[in-house]
Amino acid sequence: xxxxxxxxxxxxxxxxxxxxxxAAAQTTVTLTHPLPAASHYGVGAVAFKEAxxxxxxxxxxxxxxxxxNEREAIEATQxxxxxxxxxxxxxxxxxxxxxxxxxxxxxxxxxxHARAVLDGPIGQELLAKFPARGLIGVVWMENGFRNLTNSRxxxxxxxxxxxxxxxxxxxxxxxxxxxxxxxxxxxxxxSELVPALQQGTVDGQENPIPVIVSNNLNQVQKYLSLTxxxxxxxxxxxxxxxxxxxxxxxxxxxxxAAAAAAKTNRDKVxxxxxxxxxxxxxxxxxxxTTVDTAAFQAALAPAFQAYAQQFDPALIERxxxxxx
Length: 324
Ligand code: EAX
Fold this sequence. Notes:
Blueprint: H1 2-8, E1 27-33, H2 40-55, E2 60-66, H3 70-79, E3 84-88, H4 111-119, H5 121-127, E4 136-150, H6 158-161, E5 165-168, H7 172-180, E6 184-187, H8 193-199, E7 204-208, H9 209-214, E8 223-238, H10 240-244, H11 248-282, E9 286-288, H12 293-299, H13 301-310, H14 313-321
Parallel strand pairs: 1-2, 1-3, 5-6, 5-7, 8-9
Antiparallel strand pairs: 3-8, 4-7, 4-8
Helix pairs in contact: 2-11
The protein binds (2R,3R)-2,3,4-trihydroxybutanoic acid (EAX).
């Protein structure tokens, strides 16, 4: 009636609805990660945001925030103060112990091997362990092969590591490796790393080239040794209440967006691996490329024996042999 009256009064030449259509409901989700926006995690986060917003026609918006304490971010995702986080597996073992097997030194031959394992049945079996721990393992992403940096001396053999105070992630598998080498592993969140290096609380740390480059660790570390002693997976973790509340179509959108994040993230790692060492040399780091990997693997024999007690040796063998 009102519409006809107004039209008769010539109030509206167009058959425009008189009552504003309710805007499509929009849900904002928060994703955090610990690194700079231009890092291999940051570009993955943006790819995720763009895909979610495009595929949902704006029904979902993604807010990206930085939190460089990965354990805190996982806890926040678990209790629902945020919906997603991207993190290395460093602290994940404190929530989903089964993932610690991935952190064993020298387990993966190269990037192709690691990506095939994570995207294949073994990686999917591990993601299936997350819901029982109050988390959703959405998709495997990538941090990269970790290398040792320090400010005391060049490191090419295990003997050079002896006595170094090395910051490690809060990861018992990594800590055992460095104590087996005679170093003094000092676990702390990434958020505490640079101050600890600046104050000399620790002599060194270990991280993939993409992390060393994107955080300018060359400003607080002199020597880089290309040890590649551990492949460090990353993972996108989701909040179960949010994830399980999605209908099938929306869940498919988030899964497609997570796959886009992983591809962009891995492509950035590949690119950083091609250019990062030269960039760090240019920034003044002294780089040891000829590291005695066989000597490091031999020196870690006691740690490998302990890992074979802690994890299923058959699983370790499955991972080592995958794709051969
Ligand atoms: O996930 O804590 C670390 O050394 C991690 O490699 C870093 O936060 C990126």
